[in-house]
Design brief:
It is built from 6 helices and 7 strands. By secondary structure, the protein is of the alpha/beta class. Strands 3-2-1-6-4-7-5 form a 7-stranded parallel β-sheet, with helices on both faces. The longest helix is centred in the C-terminal third of the chain and has 29 residues, at 158-186.
Length: 187
């Protein structure tokens, strides 16, 4: 006989973190990303099929099991949504430009993700494949109003960039919330 003796409701955060990433050729790296991003508290992970993607298929069964295990181990409450492999050009029009960002390595002006990530309740960061997004893919995002960002000085591997982006969004929100509390206390 099973009896529930205690129930706890945990509300979602006031913001959501969504990373869209082109999966690497080596699936072990995507498994690592799913595990670590779940531990950090990712809400949604979309896998993108880009022009330079080496992986053209992806089975989510194993990745979902890894996410569940990481959720239990880390004490997180919410399991991230894992989206099937999606064509980049079809995905871009579904994004809200004001809260979506593209991290790429091409020349041009880019803002630090940490400076802009906390401006909205939702945030989606696009991370390209090994070899980066093509100029046409970058232009498609920019034409849609998606803003270019940088994750810092280092050139990161795809899976590292995706994890760094998720964590940066969390840190930016924590900093923004603390700054607002500090301003409110000064009044």
């Amino acid at each position: 006989m099973l009896r529930i003796t205690n129930e706890q409701r945990v509300p979602r955060r006031a913001y959501s973190v969504h990373v869209a990433v082109a999966p690497t050729k080596n699936l072990d790296r995507m498994e690592w990303l799913v595990e670590k991003a779940t531990e950090v508290g990712l809400d949604r992970l979309t896998f993108l099929r880009c022009a330079r993607s080496e992986r053209r298929e992806l089975k989510l069964d194993r990745l979902e099991k890894i996410a569940i295990s990481a959720l239990k181990q880390s004490g997180q409450t919410w399991l991230p949504q894992l989206d099937e492999l999606t064509d980049y050009a079809a995905f871009i029009p579904t994004l809200e430009p004001a809260t979506s960002f593209i991290a790429h390595l091409a020349e041009g002006e880019r803002t630090a993700l940490s400076q802009v990530a906390a401006r909205g309740a939702n945030c989606c960061v696009l991370i390209g494949p090994e070899g980066d997004f093509t100029p046409a893919e970058i232009n498609l995002a920019l034409e849609r109003g998606i803003r270019p960002v940088t994750l810092g000085e280092s050139r990161l591997r795809t899976e590292t960039a995706a994890l760094a982006a998720a964590h940066t969004v969390h840190i930016a929100h924590e900093f923004y919330a603390a700054a607002n509390v500090s301003q409110t206390n000064k009044r």
